[in-house]
Design brief:
The chain has about 425 residues and is α+β, with helices and mostly antiparallel strands. The chain has 10 helices and 19 strands. The radius of gyration is 25 Å and the shape is elongated. It starts with a strand and ends in an 18-residue tail after the last strand.
Length: about 425
């Protein structure tokens, strides 16, 4: 089977001033269709909600066409699909015991495929409630080395279903263009006998979050203990008495011993998590990049990350598990579900994809991206200890098999039903 590689490119649209109102009117009707579908399909708690697009279309499509005169038929279908997909996610949350409510739509976001949009390398023609509007792309003068040059202008990539968004602060429209290509079909199939656990390390919050949704340790507590210890040592030094000097010598590196024990317990839980999910590899981000992220003198965090990884590697080796690192670029900005990579996707501890609306804890999302990066590296030819090339990564519920070479278009071996938007697992030392 051939799997597509997908990249999402954000490009500003040069919309004629006299046609901006047509796009706003189109969005209003598109969101109306999504909200009407949600009202019709949401039946909790009395009945089962409708999550099937075909069933929803059979029940409400004709009414929506009558109620939104001028809206392209395909946009009505896309609005129905958006609502039923989101309700499906809500049903999954309810099945996990989470609290959720009917989806509501009030932002600017229109889904276009090739029936409602005609894509070119330098412009796009979009269906609106008042005919089509042609919008040129605002491209960089030198696109080489940019996502525009690498994907949007690359003839080996073709356009797929994309979305149009509006920035009200800047009064600008953007196309989130989904670019697809097929990988080399001549590449040999790889054995499916290795599995990765991804780990995202943090300066604050939890020390580590895994791709299986486990939250480990308390970085805030560790930092607090360090600061209190350093203040006490400084106070003793300033006192200058013999008693203070003796106390200073007696406490010595008490914090160092305590923190090493704390990280030992965290590393033990990480390895146990990998074993529990049958993982052959544990993936961390490359420590070489951490100094750039925390370059404000917080050398302690650098030490803590390195100590944790070293302890994990030592314990993992005893269980035949390999610890590897991956390049950390965009792990916190890329959606682990659809591959959309935008800085605006992340808001503190919350990740909310602007393209597919996937919403989850940001560190959990990053951990899944880290796991996937190593899975891809191993699938491309590196061998696992068992002799087969790597092709799976562990999630909160089940695993995913890597089928692409760049972003998430993978196959669930067992369906992932997760809503990890806050720490629910045990946290060592918290």
């Amino acid at each position: 089977m051939v799997w597509e590689v997908t990249r999402t490119v954000r490009v500003r649209l040069d919309v004629p001033d006299d046609r901006k109102s047509d796009l706003h009117a189109t969005n209003s009707k598109f969101q109306y269709c999504a909200n009407r579908t949600a009202d019709w399909a949401w039946r909790h708690p009395d009945e089962d909600c409708v999550t099937n697009k075909s069933e929803a279309e059979a029940g409400i499509y004709d009414d929506l066409r009558d109620e939104t005169d001028g809206l392209h038929a395909n946009l009505v279908q896309k609005a129905i699909k958006r609502a039923t997909d989101d309700i499906g996610n809500c049903v999954d949350r309810l099945a996990e015991g989470e609290t959720t409510s009917k989806p509501e739509y009030d932002t600017f976001s229109i889904v276009y495929d090739k029936r409602a949009a005609t894509y070119y390398r330098d412009k796009v023609s979009l269906a609106t409630v008042n005919g089509r509007v042609e919008c040129e792309y605002d491209l960089p003068d030198d696109p080489e080395g940019t996502p525009h040059g690498e994907y949007l202008l690359n003839e080996t990539y073709s356009f797929s279903t994309s979305t149009v968004h509006y920035d009200s602060d800047a009064d600008e429209f953007y196309l989130h263009a989904a670019m697809e290509r097929e990988p080399d079909a001549s590449s040999p199939e790889k054995a499916e006998d290795s599995r990765v656990l991804g780990v995202d390390c943090n300066v604050d919050g939890h020390i580590a979050v895994t791709s299986t949704g486990t939250f480990i340790g308390n970085a805030d507590s560790l930092n607090h203990e360090r600061r209190e210890f350093e203040k006490r040592r400084a106070s003793l030094q300033q006192t200058g008495t013999r008693s203070a000097h003796l106390t200073y010598q007696r406490i010595g590196d008490r914090f160092g011993r305590w923190s090493r024990d704390y990280l030992h317990r965290c590393s033990k839980e990480l390895v146990a998590e990998a074993e529990h999910h049958g993982c052959t590899h544990i993936a961390f981000e490359d420590l070489a990049q951490i100094r750039e992220c925390i370059s404000d003198g917080k050398k302690f965090q650098q030490w803590a990350f390195r100590a944790l990884q070293e302890q994990v590697a030592y314990k993992a080796d005893e269980h035949g598990i390999v610890v590897e690192t991956v390049e950390p670029s965009y792990t916190s900005q890329q959606c682990s579900k659809c591959g959309c990579t935008l800085e605006e996707n992340r808001h503190g501890q919350r990740f909310a994809c602007l393209d597919c609306s996937y919403s989850v804890n940001a560190d959990y999302n990053a951990a899944k991206n880290i796991a996937r990066k190593l899975a891809l590296q191993l699938q491309r030819g590196q061998k696992s200890p068992a002799g087969g090339a790597f092709c799976q990564y562990a999630l909160k519920s089940g695993v995913m098999t890597v089928n692409a070479t760049d972003v998430a278009s993978d196959t669930p071996v067992s369906a992932e039903r997760e809503s990890t938007d806050k720490p629910t697992a045990s946290a060592v030392g918290s």
